[in-house]
Amino acid sequence: MRSFDLSYDAEDDFLEVTFAVFDENMSRTVALNDHILLFTDLGLQAVLGITFYSYARLLGVSETDMTALRPLPQAQIDSILSLLSKPPARLFFDVTDPEGLIARIEAPSIHRLLDDEP
After folding, report:
1. From edge to edge, which strands make up the β-sheet containing 102-105?
2. Contact 53, 36 (CB under 8 A)
3. What are phi and psi of 68, to 5 degrees?
């Protein structure tokens, strides 16, 4: 069973999920696009948290482009895509086209958040 903190603001349609307590000085913030921020360790080995702006809208569209990744070196893009395909991030992302940097945003159940193992 994993620990997590889940916070949703309906008025602003803002979802924040934290999987570990982290120091902002010892973590990395990666923008996937204008609506999604991924928080990782400095080495891109673990997802520490995810912030979604306009979460309900993201759930309502069939595809979400991760356009902010395009300027990054391919090795970093590959590391980020790998993180998105493993727990806990994979519960929120279905990367449908890795080469096109396209994903579908998911709404996992609490049960899945508790039980999905790496």
Report:
1. 64-65, 102-105, 93-97
2. yes
3. -70, -15
In this structure, the number of other CB atoms found within 10 A of the CB of residue 48 comes to 21
* Rounded to 5°, angle at Cα 81 from 76 and 82: 95
Which residue ranges make up each domain of the chain?
5-115
Token pair of 103 as six digits? 């994903």
CA-based radius of gyration for the chain: 13
Cα(26)–Cα(19) distance, integer angstroms: 15
Enter the pTM of the model.
0.91
pLDDT digits (tens, 9 = 90+) for 17-39: 998 877 777 889 999 999 999 99
- pLDDT tops 60 at residue 1: no
Residue from 25, 21, 46, 48 nearest 37 by CA: 48
Residue found under tokens 């000085």 = 25
No. of helices (H) and no. of strands (E), the chain = 3, 8
